[in-house]
Write a structure and sequence with these properties.
By secondary structure, the protein is an alpha/beta fold. It has a domain at about 25-245: Spore Coat Polysaccharide Biosynthesis Protein SpsA, Chain A, CATH 3.90.550.10. The chain is built from twelve helices and ten strands. The strands form two sheets. Strands 3-2-1-4-8-6-9 form a seven-stranded mixed β-sheet, sandwiched between helices. A three-stranded mixed β-sheet has the order 5-10-7. Helix 2 links the parallel strand 2 (about 55-60) and strand 3. The radius of gyration is 25 Å and the shape is globular.
């Protein structure tokens, strides 16, 4: 009689596969003398549906006797208090990133936000969710805060049109706005390495110190490295508006001159071709508008009236409709101002003056100046 051996197979449940750890998010808030606004910026981050793992206020060369530093600490943020840093905001961010990035993984994320900006509660969650495929950074869609009278209202309408244009482009970001943008750690490291290696202009760190508009410049850097930049509609931020014409002039001169300087630094490439085209179209639009005003004035002087033209009346009507539709979401005040048109035309003249002054300054190589706004 032979022995028989019975083998009993025991079912063993496979070990659970660990879910990939979600990336850490570190928020950096560069601030100089922002003691009256930084607490609101920090509170906006603490109220996010995806709260950053760390919130660090980067106080830079403050002259308010520690008020910004203490306001940030009281609001619950860590503080990196810097003094003697050159390069203003860009220099402070470079120093902070050198401190923070060594402890982070390639897929971790860095949120850089202005101290005068408050994020909508879903910003961080939607920005992190937008980091797909070759997206290297996600910028906010900015809207103007209340106040500022008529000038503030015109700026809010301008920002609403910018949001409308982004939506029409499928959320592709033209500029990774300095108000709030989220970057992959890997991309920031690549930007620095590419600058050191000479593949990107602008020095040897993450942000260039040579530009008046570091947000516009780093957008071109990220795109030049082959990454996409996005601005999802859900990534809303509310930022300050300029309450006087001199402040608005200084802000827009810095934006326009910085944009032109950045194009000169990069030259004509596959990435910058679109930006060169935008600048050329802005110039042609400004010249066409000036010719229209001159011809209208000439008719009034010679004939005492403007002869109506069916063709140009139809073109003008389409122009007004487009103006109204593009600010529709901003409410009835914006719609009314857009329909009246005259005040917006005056605002456009202001913008054209900024454009030509910046162009002349660039051509004459006048020294770039940073004006605090």
């Amino acid at each position: 009689m032979s022995d028989t051996t019975t083998l009993q197979l025991r079912s063993v449940a496979p070990a659970p596969i660990a879910a990939p750890a979600r990336p850490r998010i570190i928020a950096l808030i560069p601030a100089r003398n922002e003691h009256d606004r930084i607490a609101a910026a920090i509170a906006g981050l603490q109220a996010q549906t995806r709260v950053p793992d760390e919130i660090i206020a980067v106080t830079n060369n403050c002259t308010d006797h520690g008020a910004t530093r203490e306001a940030a600490r009281d609001a619950g943020a860590w503080v990196l208090d810097l003094h003697g840093i050159e390069g203003k905001k860009a220099g402070a961010l470079n120093h902070a990133l050198d401190d923070v990035l060594p402890g982070l993984d390639e897929q971790d994320l860095i949120l850089i936000q202005d101290a005068d900006t408050v994020l909508d509660p879903g910003f961080v969650e939607h920005a992190a969710g937008g980091m797909r495929r070759r997206v290297g950074a996600v910028g906010g869609v900015f809207y103007g805060e209340p106040g500022g009278g008529l000038l503030g209202q015109l700026q809010r309408m301008e920002y609403q049109r910018y949001a409308w244009e982004i939506a029409k482009r499928g959320g592709r970001a033209t500029v990774l706005t300095g108000t709030a943008s989220l970057f992959r750690v890997r991309v920031l490291r690549e930007v620095k390495a590419a600058r050191i290696g000479g593949r990107l202009p602008g020095g040897t760190s993450y942000y260039t110190l040579a530009s008046l508009t570091e947000d516009d410049e780093i957008t071109k850097a990220v795109k030049t490295l082959g990454y996409r930049t996005m601005s999802p509609a859900a990534c809303r931020v509310t930022t300050e508006v300029m309450v006087s014409l001199p402040k608005l002039w200084n802000q827009r001169m810095r934006w326009q001159r910085g944009a032109l300087e950045n194009l000169r630094s990069y030259g004509l490439t596959r990435v910058t071709a679109r930006y060169f085209g935008q600048q050329i179209m802005m110039g042609l639009g400004a010249v066409a508008f000036a010719l229209f005003l001159w011809l209208t004035a000439w008719q009034l002087i010679l004939f005492g009236a403007v002869s109506p033209s069916p063709l140009w009346t139809a073109v003008g009507s389409i122009f007004v409709v487009e103006k109204v539709v593009s600010v529709w979401a901003a409410g009835w005040r914006s719609r009314l101002l857009a329909a009246v048109l005259v005040l917006e035309l005056a605002y456009d003249l202001f913008q054209h003056a900024v454009y030509f002054r910046a162009l002349i300054d660039l051509a004459l190589r006048r020294e770039e100046r940073w004006a605090t706004t």
